[in-house]
């Protein structure tokens, strides 16, 4: 992971901060888009049925790992997203990432497990608003009905042919809110697709976690 002063947004060339500050379109928007701040992203592998592993990781994260497919667990300083029976994406504040890596390395030491910092691999785009679900449905085959994909659900899938991880964070801006994790090299493509798909509903750009 590079030093904070060397880290650059995957969408810096789009001038999102200036667009958010201008408030253009916010009065008629059905969709709110924004790039999430830099986040620590850690890939964790291990055996969830190993009680000692699970207890040690729970202590490090402040929450038990989710073991139900396509769910998340939120702790005091980290969120764990289920990727597979023995794999999770741990998300935390960028400033906490190094400390979290160290804590997890202690937790998995001596076990058939691993933790890898993958923070620079993905950008995170936030999508929210009254029509957010409709936008995703234009390019994604996941069943997004609230009964099937409620707040706290996550899924690895394709969105407009780009490999993504979608996490339903709850409700915001008058509708469902999602964090969309996508490879940095696809971030610009996906942002442009989302803006185009949302154009009919009105789009406002938000800053940070707005």
Structure characterization notes:
- The chain has 210 residues and is α+β, with helices and mostly antiparallel strands.
- It has two domains: 117 residues, 2-Layer Sandwich (Gyrase A, domain 2), CATH 3.30.1360.120; 81 residues, Alpha-Beta Plaits (2-Layer Sandwich), CATH 3.30.70.
- Strands 8-9-10-7-1-11 form a six-stranded mixed beta sheet. A five-stranded antiparallel beta sheet has the order 3-4-5-2-6, with helices on one face.
- A hairpin with a 3-residue loop joins strand 3 and strand 4.
- The radius of gyration is 17 Å and the shape is globular.
- The model has no long low-confidence stretch (mean pLDDT 91).
The CATH top-level class label of the largest domain: Alpha Beta
Classification by helices and strands = alpha+beta
List the uncertain runs.
none
* Rounded mean pLDDT score: 91
Distance from N terminus to C terminus (CA atoms, Å) equals 25 Å
- Number of β-strand runs: 11
- Per CATH, the architecture of the largest domain is 2-Layer Sandwich
Q: Which descriptor suits the 3D outline?
A: globular
Whole-angstrom Rg: 17 Å
Biggest beta sheet summary:
6 strands, mixed
Helix and strand succession?
HEEHEEEHEEHEEEHE
Count of folded domains: 2
Please bin the fraction of helical residues: 10-25%
Number of continuous helical runs: 5
Indicate the proportion of strand residues.
25-35%
CATH homologous group name of the largest domain: Probable tRNA modification gtpase trme, domain 1
CATH topology of the largest domain: Gyrase A, domain 2
Q: How are strands sequenced across the largest beta sheet?
A: 8-9-10-7-1-11
